[in-house]
């Protein structure tokens, strides 16, 4: 693992670099890449255009594609010239290893220690194979973090303390927090450290209930933190398989046209693109930029008002 005591210079922060045009060209090169892709909006107000934007990638349901989307949204944002930190908030450490960064060893400083003791997080930061993506890795000692945070009495605010230190460095345009599948104090504390959230869902009869529970949890956590500025940027339907049966189709239609939460994109099952890119320690946008899979992740960045179309 390459750890950076001092984070190396990265690309300029901009929203409309030439790579945006490249992304558009890639799209043009793939006519009919997916029937559900709509044209990107040409004129949008970006969500939180100033400073470091922090998004929690969440759903208490396991295996819906949170980590896959975190890694690949990071790739799409990086392609648009954004400087991205992937904050691996899950002790499973899949975002860490998925970007070919090693988890801290038993004698290394860990995220759990930094959060609990309000230490400087910068020594944790590791470089990935993509110049403008870094990782703040997870480690197994985070399995006890929820109860450790509870013991402090101020646990709900402690991720915010760490994230504010990261914001103050001015090194990133985006921080994406890959959450574990839980509704606990550590995930609440990560939400409270965030400006907004993207909720991953799958096509399953429990998704609507799960979505309601997730949004209710956001409201609860924000009420406790006395915040009213948190925004659910949208939902992403992951691991979509077609054709689907009538029952799944009904759920899918509800998710795509959700009455209160905007559906940003869907990610079809694309095991080869996703897993072979991961094997290279790269997001799909960097490993396979001309595939429709890369375009699905760009779609999240565009529809989520995280970047502007070139
Ligand atoms: N679009 C996709 N096509 C094919 N495989 C996928 C896709 N999305 C995710 N997967 C695979 O599904 C599994 C679960 O995905 P992932 O780990 O991203 O979900 P998660 O929500 O982060 O899970 P957890 O709740 O355990 O953190 C992984 O093996 C991943 O490679
Ligand atoms: Mg995960």
From TrEMBL:
Transmembrane segments: none annotated. CDD domains: ParAB_family (cd02042). It comes from the Bacteria. Residues 25-39 have a biased composition (Basic and acidic residues). It holds the Pfam family AAA_31. Residues 14-24 have a biased composition (Polar residues). Gene3D superfamilies: P-loop containing nucleotide triphosphate hydrolases (3.40.50.300). Residues 14-45 are annotated as: Disordered. Residues 53-222 form the AAA domain. This is AAA family ATPase. It comes from Streptomyces albiaxialis. The lineage of its organism: Bacteria, Bacillati, Actinomycetota, Actinomycetes, Kitasatosporales.
């Amino acid at each position: 693992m390459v750890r950076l005591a001092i984070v190396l210079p990265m690309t300029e922060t901009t929203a409309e670099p030439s790579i945006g045009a490249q992304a558009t060209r890639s799209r043009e090169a793939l006519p009919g890449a997916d029937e559900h892709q709509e044209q990107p909006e040409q004129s949008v107000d970006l969500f939180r255009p100033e400073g470091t934007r922090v998004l929690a990638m969440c759903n208490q349901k396991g295996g819906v594609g949170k980590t896959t989307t975190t890694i690949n949204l990071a790739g799409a944002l990086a392609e648009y010239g954004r400087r991205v930190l992937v904050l691996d908030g899950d002790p499973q450490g899949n975002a860490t290893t998925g970007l070919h960064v090693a988890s801290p060893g038993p004698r290394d400083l860990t995220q759990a220690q930094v959060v609990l003791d309000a230490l400087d997080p910068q020594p944790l930061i590791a470089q990935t194979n993509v110049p403008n993506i870094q990782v703040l890795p997870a480690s197994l000692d985070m399995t006890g973090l929820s109860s450790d945070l509870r013991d402090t009495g101020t646990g709900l605010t402690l991720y915010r303390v760490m994230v504010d230190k990261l914001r103050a460095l001015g090194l990133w345009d985006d921080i994406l927090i890959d959450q574990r599948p839980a509704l606990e104090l550590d995930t609440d504390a990560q939400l409270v450290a965030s400006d907004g959230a993207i909720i991953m869902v799958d096509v399953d009869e429990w998704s609507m209930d799960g979505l309601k529970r997730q949004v209710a949890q956001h409201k609860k956590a924000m009420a406790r933190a006395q915040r009213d500025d948190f925004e659910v940027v949208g939902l992403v339907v992951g691991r979509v398989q077609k054709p689907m049966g009538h029952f799944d189709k009904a759920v899918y239609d509800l998710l795509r046209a959700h009455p209160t939460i905007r559906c940003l994109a869907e990610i079809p099952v694309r095991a080869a693109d996703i897993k072979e890119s991961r094997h290279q320690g790269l997001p799909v946008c960097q490993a396979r930029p001309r595939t429709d899979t890369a375009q699905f992740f760009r779609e999240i960045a565009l529809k989520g008002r995280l970047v502007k179309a070139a």
